[in-house]
Specification:
single chain, about 325 residues, Rossmann fold, GMP Synthetase, Chain A, domain 3, 2 domains, 9 strands, disordered N terminus, binds guanosine-5'-triphosphate, binds magnesium ion
């Protein structure tokens, strides 16, 4: 994990800590930013909107402050049951946070951003707000200037920064800006903690990310991943493999033809999904993994609140 190395007169009484909700339209780059901040991949990323389904906590511990970030599902209005659950996760993170970090996709200021803008404009008094225009690395200077001007005009007194979650440009200033808005207080989590997400959940998310990467169009949105078994390498109780973490997961799809697509000709697609996910899990765990994947049809699960909850996307953390 990256640690702030800046020295200075920051006694324990000056230390700051608090929760920061990263909110924004789908695809704005929230999960990419969280991973960059932590210098570790804990949140899944894809080119497609509506990737994040959980409210993911990432802890950044520095000398002056401990920032506890919540990566949230992209905010948008949509009547589908699964999406309603996602929106409620974003709202709960925002409610519980000290600071709202509104991430705006500099390349797209469409309807989705107007929706988030409404959300941010309605924040209760006293909650810190910071606006970051993301993807500055692919914006023309004029474009950036005018968007910055428009946002500063709409939110007087609020800091508007240009950043790139991909290259890290502006992220140092962003951290300083957030620190200033946090309340004074001691660290909330141990200094070496990275996330509160259990590894088995992260593993299932990495499989879902690989599905985003290896399948097209609507299929990722019909996909859920559950973990059936997660065994630490032996020696340990209850079995497992020598020197390898054993993980068995199920990919749930909604229809028969989706199952065939997920598996691919001769199992090729499923194999690619497995390889990609396994590598990411191994990187985070720092050791070898045996990943077994089943594909099952759970008919119309995205429309059924009971199944949504069963698959772990319904309980508001
Ligand atoms: N050029 C550029 N691309 C970026 C940047 N940040 C994120 N992206 C890309 O934008 C896409 C979406 O990134 P995510 O991090 O998944 O976005 P998100 O806001 O978490 O999306 P949801 O979870 O769907 O709400 C990915 O293809 C990223 O690689 C950036 O600073 N510059
Ligand atoms: Mg995300």
């Amino acid at each position: 994990m990256k640690a702030d190395t800046k020295e200075g007169g920051h006694g324990p009484d000056r230390h700051r800590s608090g929760f920061v909700a990263i909110v924004g339209a789908p695809n704005a780059g929230k999960s990419t930013l969280l991973n960059f901040l932590l210098d570790e991949k804990v949140a899944i990323v894809s080119r497609k909107p509506q990737t994040t389904r959980h409210r993911i906590l990432g802890i950044l511990t520095g000398k002056e402050a401990q920032m506890v970030f919540w990566d949230t599902p992209g905010y948008h209005s949509n009547a589908k049951a699964l999406n309603q659950e996602m929106v409620s996760r974003t709202l709960s993170a925002l409610h519980d946070s000290d600071v709202c970090l509104w991430l705006v996709d500099g390349k797209r200021m469409g309807q989705e951003h107007l929706e988030t803008r409404g959300l941010v404009a309605g924040l209760p008094k006293g909650k810190g707000l910071l606006i970051a225009i993301n993807k500055a690395d692919v914006m023309a200077p004029d474009e950036l200037r005018s968007l910055k001007g428009a946002l500063s005009g709409a939110f007087p007194g609020t800091r508007v920064l240009a950043i790139s979650a991909r290259t890290g440009k502006g992220v140092g200033l962003l951290k300083k800006g957030i620190t200033r808005l946090l309340p004074r207080g001691p660290a909330l989590y141990p200094g070496d903690a990275l996330t509160d997400q259990p590894m088995r959940l992260i593993a299932s998310e990495f499989v879902r990310e690989a599905v985003f990467e290896c399948t097209r169009e609507e299929l990722p949105y019909s996909t859920a991943v559950t973990v059936d078994e997660y065994l630490e390498p032996v020696p340990s109780e209850g079995g497992g493999l020598p020197g390898k973490t054993y993980i068995s997961v199920t990919i749930h799809v909604e229809k028969e033809n989706q199952k065939a697509i997920m598996i691919g000709k001769g199992g090729a697609r499923l194999q690619a999904i497995g390889t990609m996910a396994r590598r990411n899990i191994e990187r985070l765990l720092g050791g070898p993994v045996f990943l077994k994947i089943f594909v099952r049809i759970s008919k119309d699960w995205t429309k059924n609140r009971k199944t949504i909850r069963e698959f772990g996307y319904g309980d508001i953390a």
